[in-house]
Amino acid sequence: MILRRIYMWGAACLVAGTLWAQPDLKVDRDVANMGEIMFQMPGKAEFQIENTGTSDLLITDINPSCGCTTVDWTKTPIAPGEKGKIEVVYDAQMLGVFQKDMEVYTNASEEPFYLHIQGRVVSKLANYEGLFPIDLGNVRLNTNNIEFDNVNKGDRPMVEIAVVNTSRTSYVPQLMHLPPYLEARYLPEKLSGGRIGKIQLTLDSEHLQQLGLNQTNIYLARKVGDQIGEENEIVVSAVLLPDFSKLTKADLERAPKMVLSADSLDLGEMGRRKKKTGVITIENQGKSTLEIRTIQVFNRAVNVSLGDRKIEAGGKTKLKITIQDKYLVKAKNKPRVLLITNDPARPKVTIPVKIRTEIKQEEKK
After folding, report:
1. Range 174-190 average pLDDT
2. What is the full DSSP assignment across 260-326?
């Protein structure tokens, strides 16, 4: 009788626990104020959503109130205590004040909740520093660092660089030192004073020479006969992925499986050191040899050394990552290490490296 009561009590607790395990959510804000954004320069906003419940939270659908707004969100389940995000882009095709709504559905409730974006689309800004932080003198850019990520052979992705002519005379944008795999288009071909245009860069992946990171520097001419230099330099990176499309089911079952001791490396404070080093362990939990086909860095502040490029099933090796202080200040890219492997599940792994530096007194003077 006692055993039966214990069993019934345990079963009741199990059922109650199952019933009580529910997702819940908290959003960092209901309204994102985009402020003033330029005409035909899409504005972006991001909402952070946290699972405050006791079971996985899933965003099932989001309906924007207008076709002028596109939405992307975390598609995978968000574990209790973890965060996901909702990214909203407004196309800025109409001048004036705007307010748009998003209807968000989750497994936390049958009823949706609502998020809002608002702002004002203008034809001219009083100050261009916020939207165009890269100052080249007579022109400003929204970025000088372009990345084509996760490129497959045959892809032709395109990115845009926004450029504003801050002078009173017309300006003809022209990129110098373009490699064979990059094509540029200028819209418009001539910019009047105070006007904004864009440069469309298209990557022809068929002309990429190697797997992994292909990096080059191109330069924007500020005037006819302009010289190249650090001031007008634009860094372009493209990561070409290996092709596993011809692998059979048996090949996939025998494939290597790469597991890292950490997906990122935090080196803390640089302090007075000239360099600082950390280590990540790479383990092969698969059934065949793991090959690190390519190991590359995004800027010269990062140095790496790898124990073994071929790791047998069940084996391990160490990846040593060193940051050199003298190159950090001028680096246009964040410190990262790129691995290209023969693991079909993880053909490309990017390891961000975090390090905090202090501005030296002599640099302040």
Report:
1. 96
2. ES-SSEEEEE-TT-SEEEEEEEEEE-SSS-EEEEEEEESSTTEEEEES-SEE-TT-EEEEEEEEEHH
Burial (0-12, 13-18, 19+ Cβ within 10 Å), 204: middle
Q: What is the pLDDT of residues 184-235, one digit of tens each?
A: 999 999 998 888 899 999 999 999 989 999 999 999 999 989 999 999 999 9
Query: At residue 69, does pLDDT exceed 90?
Result: yes
Mean pLDDT of 92-110: 93
Q: How far is Cα 182 from Cα 180, in angstroms, rounded to an integer?
A: 6
- Tens-digit pLDDT profile for residues 12-41: 444 444 456 788 999 999 999 988 888 888
DSSP state of 315: -
pTM over 0.85: no
Distance, in Å, from the CA atom of 197 to the CA atom of 160, rounded to the nearest integer, reads 10
Task: Return the SS3 of 205.
Answer: helix
First to last CA, the chain: 84
CA atoms within 13 A on the CB side of 190: 5
Question: Domains, the chain, ranges and CATH?
Answer: 25-122 (2.60.40.10), 134-240 (2.60.40.10), 249-362 (2.60.40.10)
Task: Decide if 89 contacts 98 (C-beta within 8 A).
Answer: no
CA 62 to chain centre: 22
DSSP state of 206: G
H or E element that contains 83: strand 83-90
- Cα(277)–Cα(300) distance, integer angstroms: 14
Q: How far apart are alpha carbons 174 and 165 in whole angstroms? A: 13
Which residues are bridge partners to 135 per DSSP? 140
Is 361's pLDDT higher than 50? no
The alpha helices in the chain, defined as continuous H runs, are 2-20, 249-253, 325-328, 361-364
Per-residue DSSP letters for 339-358?
EEES-TT-SEEEEEEEEE--
Structure tokens at 221: 């001419």
